[in-house]
What we know:
The radius of gyration is 25 Å and the shape is globular. Helix content is 46%, strand content 13%. It starts with 6 loop residues before the first strand and ends with a helix. The protein has 25 helices and 14 strands. Strands 1-2-3-14-13 form a 5-stranded mixed β-sheet. Strands 8-9-10-11-12 form a 5-stranded mixed β-sheet, with helices on both faces. It folds into 4 domains: 7-144, no CATH class; 195-322; 329-485, no CATH class; 514-566, no CATH class. It is α/β, with parallel strands linked by helices. It has helices at 10-18, 40-56, 67-83, 98-121, 148-151, 153-165, 174-183, 189-192, 196-206, 210-230, 238-251, 260-269, 274-280, 299-302, 305-316, 318-323, 332-338, 389-397, 399-414, 420-424, 461-471, 475-485, 518-521, 528-534, 556-564, and strands at residues 7-8, 125-130, 135-140, 235-236, 271-272, 286-289, 292-295, 346-354, 357-365, 370-377, 433-440, 457-460, 492-496, 505-511.
Amino acid sequence: MVNMSAIDITDTLLQQYAKLSPEDLKRTPAEPPLDLHPQAAEMFVKMAEHAVHHIGIGSADYEDYTVPVTGLALTNCLVACEKATITPSFENPLRPDPWVRETFIQQLMAELNLEQAARLRHGIWTCWYDPQSDRAHHRLTRRRRQSALLLLDKLAQPNLLQRLLGRSLQDLSLDELCHVLMASPEVLYFVTRTDPAGWTKFESAIGVNTEEMAALAGFLVFLSFAADTVGHSYWYDEPFLAKLWDIYVQAYPQYKPISSTLLIKAVSGFSMAPSEAAKTLMNPPFFRLYDKFLRNPCFLKAHNLVAGMLIIAIRRHERAWNETLGSSLARAADTLGSMLPQTPRLKVTVRRNYSGGDVDLALYDTQTRELLLCEVKTVYDKHRTDSLLHRFEEAKVNVSRAVSQLRSTERTIASGHLTMKQLFGIDAPPPSRVHMALLTWFDPIDITMETPDEDILSLNFATFLWLVQESVGDVQMLAVAISELRNIWALALLRPLDLGQPELTADVEVQSSLLDKRASLATLPLSPMTRRIILQMQTVDDVMSDGEASPWISYLEDTRSVLAGR
Length: 566
């Protein structure tokens, strides 16, 4: 925690960042040397794979990085290979040459600098300086802390998938379960079921259907496993892919109707030249280079696989998307509304227009007379990096416009110009209280936290559905639980932070997925529904022995302060 003697230097750092020109923080792909190593491309990929592996196991050497950040660095390295005029070698490289190693590290550090700048600029971090220890300390603000509400995603997503499959995940074999979680086309449910005709037209435009996307997603997992087991190269040509596909469909015969020709067409459709990937800041499953396919080790963990392919399809066929699903995704509110529990007390309405505005989704509790207004945004963060988060919030979600619409509807109801009869078709008194929420597709992110619009709740579709089910239609209970859960934060650890300046030592708070001790949580003034939910979540009790010294940083006092101010 921050010592009493520490000084908040956040504003000072922001002033220094403000002096930088846009060029200083611009991504710059690597330029090839004249003597670029013929195996440089696969050397870069292997370095990225090494980083991804160590990120996955929590290695201290890679704690500052995420898989999407590593993917951006890899892409900028491979641009050098695309520009080079060398004759490449596809022999398996045993180790990176000095230029490859140095360039990869430089690109990683450049991405890390962008991430750190964004965290300060967007209020994700505050920075303190302790003159006694001569050390800088980066503290996580409420803006992007991992809360109990966001941790619920790990329960809600499998629950939603099970519901869409119509089959318990417990009934699946381990192999089937892994395949469903990684490659199920049900992840696109809110797109494909919202406008089936539009989706069919979009499939026709991109030349690949949902089943083929799911098949490719599963095949990518198989390729990674096969490479780890047998030692395959990251390079693939069409005959080799066809051979591996024939092996794959023996294990998953449901994909036998998909020929190797169709599979290779899908691979080509979702591959990108490094320069295209660098320009669009995307992580493709394969890089198209030297007339071969170079598998991207970052794709598997940068995003949901099927959703990651949808990102590329939309980018490649933007006009087709805009003419089909891009103009009909407001109907996702219908799909979401149809999945809510049917109880006598809960009234649901979707896509209601009124003079001066519209309502995407609304829930009215006839017993408590409390109303929940929801803006539904069928969008997701295609980058998943802090340096590019503004693109999601501003361009995709358009938070300011969504908030404005919610507040306008709230005022119209308060003025009496929008009644429950107009919204729900029922003779009911005006609401005793109006709650508002911003719902996004599947990213577990709380967009409005620690903003001027924090009174507006923010959560994804799966968590929303799970919580409405838990509340059994009690809107008051639902709203209170969401508000409480978003203000209970997971514990953090303090670890060294590499600022690239040996003369300046620093550390940063890094959150776990563990809540405080159950005995401590029991002292909070929480609603019964919230208490039931956090009992299902992991706490530090699950990993620490009694009497063991605690290295954890707790935000429990912040929680008490927020709850006391309700």
